[in-house]
Fold receptor protein-tyrosine kinase.
Amino acid sequence: MSSTVPFPGVKTYVDPDTYEDPTQAVHEFTKEIDPPRIRIERVIGAGEFGEVCSGRLRTPGKKEIAVAIKTLKGGYVEHQRRDFLREASIMGQFDHPNIIRLEGVVTKSRPVMIVVEYMENGSLDSFLRQHDGHFTVIQLVGMLRGIASGMKYLSDMGYIHRDLAARNTLVNSNLVCKVSDFGLSRVLEDDPEAAYTTTGGKIPIRWTAPEAIAYRKFSSASDAWSYGIVMWEVMSYGERPYWEMSNQDVSIMQNFSWMTKNMYIYLFLLKRF
Ligand code: ADE
């Protein structure tokens, strides 16, 4: 974790775990929503902590907006509630058109909820796979430009994402991409792509920079590596990075020179087609 302030005078990210009482961080960085303002419409997915629903949020004096609602299922223990709300404390500190926007939280009644802006086209990886070949290069690069802008903002705030991938990016009806899935170590527990390394860490190998895999040196530079993988995912309409090569082959290949790497990929593709 970076301990230097990237731009003195510019607001920087505060890790909710540095609060003695993480509930204090929730109070500080999020707004409590009065539950009658929320109308849940349907279930759209399942998260680690409970269902994800779509619905509407009313704000007095404002137009009703579409929202996604993450719920914490009943029977949770205190550390699960804390981990669940950690994501909201992080998201609530950000304000950028390419970062998913937190509308607020419900913590004073059950179920506990996190309410964010609704992204009509869902996650970027499945969206691209469903629309293979349908966009111009300008549109694809436009999506990438948005993600780059969001990641630049996170880097300026001193926040390291650690799990940037097309599956953790959401797309709205205007094709605007927004970075999502915050929560530090927890996001890796939740990510089906994350595998255990020889050092015991859980890491999405294909998206992670070699130095972060080898000795957990996560930084904005390792986020930039992941961004490079996302560029490849977007331009290939959601193909799997390194295709079906094993995680072990991917790691071995990353230590090759670029020329050997090219030969390796060439031989792999010859065998494949
Ligand atoms: N799935 C998870 N979060 C979402 C969001 N904000 N909008 C639409 N689908 C989602």
User: Anything to note?
Assistant: DSSP finds nine helices and nine strands in the chain. Residues 124-272 form a domain with the Transferase(Phosphotransferase); domain 1 fold (CATH 1.10.510.10). The first strand starts at residue 38 and ends at 46. The chain has a mean pLDDT of 92.
